[in-house]
């Protein structure tokens, strides 16, 4: 069944200092479910326009940083209400340009608003001065805004991973220049402009473009902080570009998150099996914190695989994103589809068994779009590319392990450490979780199902620098400013 959405073509432009700025050229964004359909157009921002946006943000910062926290929160709450009012239109646009099923697009808005509302609720207390009275006098610790933030968001969760930066940056008194991904620029731009409508000109700016614009945002001396979500390889270039001016950075990067199933896990728990399937294939497997490799204790391995296939075939329905029966849509772009397909083909050549999962609802649409049928990969080696590389698509390897020491080693030898999950009796799972190198470990759930925006999120090793969400996700957009008022002004060990 194919459900046709509104076919209106959307055009977005750079938004600089409160004004739309035309560009000399534009790029088309296709619908991944039907690449012949153009969803909209976005501009090719020039390096000079990027500089203008940075300068506008720098100019606006001088006034914006002086506003009260109450004013900042009030403006952000008004923006939240506008996003809620426009949610259906945003969801339809996001689904068309990204390929997310409608329920998944609504889920992204849900997570975005949940974080924005948490940030509004907590900002006043988190950013309040700390006043310490002590024997030596008084010390005030204030949390001052950093300045101009360059925010670069990815295509997999373009709205959530833009608002995760916009909300705390502005609440802390900073200004921002946002660069959405060219693979999903439209809905993120619309949301950014809705927020911008409640703030003074120059506080929020939106630019587009490729490497030259990215280099300008990450190297310009007026930019004082970089907030980036994306691949580890790109982050290495960002770090180099930022090194000349020693910028503050929050980097949420790649992950090859493991799900570990202990001997105590009940393979007959249908709800748990459904949770792990969703943890592998939500958003077609294109989430940084998705469970990308599965380790199962050998004593339950065969039965686990059997029950997993049953659960996957019940939940996975591949089809048009606007079909309410669809649970898995297309891969976002042809490049990513080719990469994931290459990993699966490589695994087969190495002797792995590849099992297709789920039901294809519309064979014609499937063959027309950037679709891949989800697959389970068995009998592969623990060091095959499909296991050690981040697939970021609808495939997952499942491997047996014999003891906890072995699986801890397999988990921790990865260059990544974003999230992980351990499944089984709670006490046993927590004991094992403490030995894993990961920013977040979830017990008996994984991925978005275990996300709590009240607590910090980020990774070990090459999965990133710093944390987002929670109070830490607000404070990361501030600098601590210590003001000392000592009682003893003349130190006894310094001579007259």
Automatic annotation (TrEMBL):
UniProt xrefs under InterPro entries: Ald_DH/histidinol_DH, Ald_DH_C, Ald_DH_CS_GLU, Ald_DH_N, Aldehyde_DH_dom, LUC3-like
Domain Aldehyde dehydrogenase: start-end pairs: 25-480
Signal sequence residues: none
Cited Pfam families: Aldedh
Presence of the UniProt keyword Coiled coil in the record: yes
Residue numbers annotated as active site: 252
Keyword Oxidoreductase: yes
GO molecular function, one term: oxidoreductase activity, acting on the aldehyde or oxo group of donors, NAD or NADP as acceptor
Keyword tags: Coiled coil, Oxidoreductase
Residue ranges the record marks as coiled coil: 69-96
Family of this protein: Belongs to the aldehyde dehydrogenase family.
Name this polypeptide is given: Acyl-CoA reductase
Source organism (scientific name): Paenibacillus polysaccharolyticus
């Amino acid at each position: 069944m194919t459900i046709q959405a509104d076919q209106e073509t959307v055009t977005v432009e750079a938004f600089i200092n409160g004004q739309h700025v035309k560009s000399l050229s534009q790029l088309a964004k296709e619908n991944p479910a039907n690449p012949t359909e153009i969803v909209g157009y976005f501009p090719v921002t020039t390096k000079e326009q990027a500089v203008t946006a940075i300068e506008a943000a720098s100019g606006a910062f001088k006034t914006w940083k002086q506003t009260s926290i109450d004013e900042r929160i009030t403006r952000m709450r008004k923006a939240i209400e506008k996003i809620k009012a426009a949610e259906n239109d945003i969801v339809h646009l996001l689904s068309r340009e990204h390929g997310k099923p409608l329920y998944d697009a609504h889920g992204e808005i849900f997570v975005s608003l949940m974080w924005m509302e948490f940030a509004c609720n907590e900002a006043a207390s988190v950013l309040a001065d700390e006043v310490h009275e002590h024997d030596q006098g008084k010390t005030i610790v204030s949390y001052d805004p950093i300045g101009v933030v360059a925010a670069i968001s990815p295509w997999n969760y373009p709205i959530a991973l833009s608002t995760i930066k916009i909300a705390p940056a502005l609440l802390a008194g900073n200004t921002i220049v946002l660069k959405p991904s060219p693979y999903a620029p439209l809905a993120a731009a619309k949301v950014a402009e809705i927020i911008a409508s409640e703030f003074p000109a120059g506080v929020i700016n939106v630019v587009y473009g490729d490497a030259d614009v990215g280099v300008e945002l990450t190297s310009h001396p007026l930019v004082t902080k970089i907030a980036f979500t994306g691949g580890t390889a790109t982050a290495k270039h960002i770090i180099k570009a930022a090194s000349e001016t020693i910028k503050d950075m929050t980097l949420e990067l790649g992950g090859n998150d493991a799900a570990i199933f202990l001997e105590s896990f009940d393979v007959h728990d249908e709800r748990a099996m459904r949770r792990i399937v969703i943890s592998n294939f939500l958003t077609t497997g294109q989430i940084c914190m998705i469970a990308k490799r599965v380790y199962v204790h050998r004593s339950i391995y065969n039965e686990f695989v059997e029950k997993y296939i049953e659960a996957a075939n019940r939940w996975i329905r591949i089809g048009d994103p606007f079909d309410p029966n669809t649970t898995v849509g297309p891969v976002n772009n042809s490049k990513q589809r080719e990469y994931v397909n290459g990993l699966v083909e490589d695994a087969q050549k190495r002797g792995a068994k590849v099992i297709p999962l789920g039901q294809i609802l519309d064979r014609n649409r499937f063959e027309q779009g950037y679709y891949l049928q989800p697959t389970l990969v068995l009998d592969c080696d623990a060091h095959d590319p499909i296991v050690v590389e981040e697939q970021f698509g609808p495939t997952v390897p499942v491997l047996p392990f014999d003891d906890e020491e072995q699986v801890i080693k397999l988990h921790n030898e990865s260059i990544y450490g974003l999230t992980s999950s351990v499944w089984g009796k709670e006490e046993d799972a927590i004991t094992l979780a403490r030995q894993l190198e990961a920013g977040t470990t979830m017990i008996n759930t994984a991925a978005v199902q275990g996300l709590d925006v009240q607590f910090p999120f980020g990774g070990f090793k090459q999965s990133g620098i710093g944390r987002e969400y929670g109070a830490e996700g607000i404070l990361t957009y501030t600098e601590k400013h210590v003001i000392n008022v000592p009682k003893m002004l003349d130190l006894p060990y310094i001579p007259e």
